[in-house]
Design a protein that fits this description.
- By secondary structure, the protein is of the alpha/beta class.
- Among the domains are: 115-273, 3-Layer(aba) Sandwich (Rossmann fold), CATH 3.40.50.11540; 364-433, no CATH class.
- Helices cover 28% and strands 21% of the residues.
- It is built from 13 helices and 17 strands.
- It has helices at 17-20, 120-130, 168-175, 177-191, 205-215, 235-243, 261-273, 303-309, 364-368, 375-383, 387-392, 403-407, 414-433, and strands at 24-26, 32-36, 45-47, 54-55, 60-64, 70-72, 77-86, 92-100, 154-159, 195-201, 221-226, 256-260, 279-285, 293-298, 319-323, 330-332, 345-350.
- The strands form four sheets. Strands 1-14-13-17-15-16 form a six-stranded mixed beta sheet, sandwiched between helices. Strands 2-8-7-4 form a four-stranded antiparallel beta sheet, with no helix packed on it.
- Helix 10 (375-383) packs across helix 13 (414-433).
- The chain starts with 16 loop residues before the first helix and ends with a helix.
- The structure holds iron/sulfur cluster (2 copies).
- One iron/sulfur cluster is lined by residues 369-371, 373, 375, 398-404, 415, 418.
- The site of one iron/sulfur cluster has 14 residues, from helix 9.
C-alpha cells in the first residue's frame, strides 16, 4: 500500500477517461418537467401552486415545512398536477408536473446587487433564497452552514470527485473557473473566513493550471491537489488531509465549512442573474451506456430522456441504473426518475454474475471502513433483526460510502446490509420517541 492508501482509503479504477475528454452534450428540454417534492430524504413540503397555474422559470412551487428550502420551476408553462412518480430515493414521491411552453419566461428569485457591496447577511440570504444545496450529491441546504456561523477560518471548495466514472465537476470547473472562484469568495465572505482552499485530485494538470492562474487574482484563494484515493472527497477525510484537524459531529468544530465546487459556481451565477439552479451538468457513464458523456440537463428531466438523447443503452434492459456513482449511488428499478439539482451522475453498469461466497471473516471490511465501524458485525446484527446490537455497533454513523462492499473478497453487498441496518435502527429510535 502506498503512502496515502491503507486503512479507510483505496485507489480505485476510475474509468474517468470515458467522459474526461469528450464534448459536452445538451439535453433537449422536454414537453413535461417533474419537480420532486423531496429534499435529501425529507418530503415535508407545502405546495404553493395548483393545477392550472401558470408558472415561469423561478416561480416558487413548494416550501419545506420544517426548514426553509424553496423549490422553483425550471421551465415556464402550466402546472398540470401533483403526481406520485419514482424518485432517486427508490420510492414513489410527489412531483409537481409542469407542461413546458418552451418560452423560457423567467422571474428572478433575488434582486441583483453590486457583489462588491453585499454584506455577510446579504450573501447568506442569497444562498438561502436561491436554494443553493450541496450539489455533490447531498442536497443539504447550504445556508444552514452559514446561518449561525462562528469561528470559521477556512472554506474548502470540494472539487475532488473521488467516485469512479464521474467527471461533471471536472468539466464544470474547467468551463466556469471564474464563477468557481467568485462563488468560493462569496462563501468565504458569508463565513468571514480567512482563507479558501479549492481542492482537486492529482492528475488533472490542465485544470490545476487553469485554477491556479485564476486564483492568483483572489487574495484569499489557494488551489491544492489531494491524493487519488477513495473516499478523499468525503469531507471528514478532506478536512483532516488539508488542515490536520479532526472533529466529532460537524466540520464547524474544526473551524471549517466544506462546499461542493458546483454549488460555488451556482451561487456565483445566482448572485449575478438572480436565478436559482435550473439546469446542471450530469455525467452519464458506465459500461452499460453506448456513448458515455457529460450532458447539460434541465432539472426535472426524466433519466430515460437523457439516455435516449445520448444514444441509449448498450443493450436495453441488461444494465442497472444508479442515481450517482458506483460507490455511493442508489440502484433504481427503472429510468423514469428525474434529475434533481444535486444529482451529479447517472451510472449504468452491465449486470454481471457475481458469485457470492460465505463470509471469510477476513476482517477487510472492518479494516477499511473510514468510519471505524465493524461492517461484518453490523451485517450479522441486521440478518438477526437485532436492533439493540445495531445501536451498540453505532450503525447510524455509516456514511454509505460503499467501501465495505468494494473491498469484500466474498463479493457480499455488505453496504446494503449496513444501510438496511441503519433504516431498521432509525425506525426503532423513532418508535421509542413516539
Ligand atoms: S458503507 Fe458504512 S460500514 Fe461500509 S465502509 Fe462505508 S461507512 Fe463503513
Ligand atoms: S470483507 Fe467480506 S468476507 Fe471479509 S469479513 Fe467483511 S464481509 Fe466477511
Amino acid at each position: 500500500m502506498g503512502l496515502f492508501t491503507g486503512k479507510g482509503r483505496v485507489h480505485l479504477a476510475g474509468h474517468k477517461d470515458l467522459t474526461m475528454h469528450g464534448e459536452i452534450a445538451q439535453c433537449p428540454v422536454g414537453d413535461t418537467i417533474a419537480i420532486p417534492l423531496v429534499d435529501g430524504t425529507a418530503t415535508d413540503f407545502e405546495i404553493c401552486v395548483k393545477e392550472g397555474d401558470e408558472v415561469k422559470i423561478g416561480t416558487l412551487l413548494a416550501l419545506r415545512k420544517s426548514m426553509y428550502v424553496p423549490l422553483y420551476a425550471t421551465v415556464s408553462g402550466v402546472v398540470t398536477g401533483i403526481e406520485k412518480r419514482m424518485h432517486a430515493t427508490k420510492r414513489q414521491q410527489n412531483h409537481v408536473i409542469i407542461a413546458n411552453n418552451h418560452l423560457d419566461e423567467k422571474v428572478k428569485v433575488i434582486d441583483i446587487k453590486d457583489p462588491d457591496h453585499m454584506t455577510q447577511q446579504d450573501i447568506i440570504e442569497a444562498i438561502k433564497q436561491l436554494g443553493i444545496v450541496g450539489m455533490g450529491g447531498s442536497g443539504f441546504p447550504a445556508y444552514k452552514k452559514y446561518e449561525a456561523v462562528k469561528d470559521i477560518d477556512t472554506i474548502i471548495i470540494n472539487g475532488v470527485e473521488c467516485e469512479p466514472y464521474i467527471t461533471s465537476d471536472y468539466h464544470e470547473m474547467m468551463r466556469q473557473t471564474q464563477a468557481l472562484c467568485d462563488g468560493a469568495e462569496y462563501f468565504r465572505k458569508a463565513a468571514q473566513a480567512q482563507r479558501v482552499i479549492i481542492a482537486i485530485k492529482v492528475g488533472k494538470p490542465e485544470l490545476y493550471a487553469k485554477l491556479e492562474a485564476t486564483a492568483k487574482n483572489y487574495e484569499h484563494i489557494t488551489v491544492t491537489q489531494v491524493p487519488d484515493v477513495y473516499p478523499m472527497g468525503w469531507e471528514r477525510l478532506l478536512i483532516e488531509t488539508l488542515t490536520k484537524r479532526t472533529y466529532d459531529r460537524l466540520p464547524s468544530e474544526a473551524h471549517v465549512i466544506v462546499d461542493n465546487a458546483a454549488s460555488a459556481i451556482s451561487l456565483s451565477q445566482g448572485i449575478r442573474t438572480g436565478m436559482p439552479v435550473i439546469s446542471r451538468l450530469v455525467t452519464v457513464s458506465g459500461n452499460g451506456i453506448k456513448y458515455p458523456t457529460n450532458i447539460d440537463v434541465r432539472v426535472g428531466t426524466p433519466v430515460h430522456e437523457i439516455i435516449e438523447a445520448i444514444g441509449g443503452y448498450v443493450a436495453d434492459g441488461e444494465g442497472y441504473v444508479l442515481a450517482g456513482g458506483p460507490m455511493m449511488g442508489r440502484s433504481i428499478m427503472n429510468d423514469r426518475f428525474v434529475i434533481s439539482e444535486y444529482m451529479n451522475a447517472i451510472t449504468v453498469l452491465k449486470k454481471q454474475e457475481e458469485h457470492t461466497v460465505a463470509c471469510l471473516k477476513c476482517g477487510e471490511c472492518t479494516l477499511h471502513c473510514p468510519m471505524h465501524l465493524q461492517p461484518v458485525r453490523i451485517m450479522q446484527a441486521e440478518k438477526a433483526n437485532d436492533s439493540d446490537l445495531l445501536g451498540k455497533l453505532d450503525v447510524m454513523r455509516c456514511v454509505e460510502c460503499g467501501m465495505c462492499s468494494y473491498i469484500c473478497p466474498s463479493k457480499i453487498e455488505v453496504t446494503d446490509f449496513v444501510a438496511k441496518g441503519k433504516r431498521r435502527y432509525g425506525l426503532t429510535l423513532r418508535r421509542k420517541k413516539a
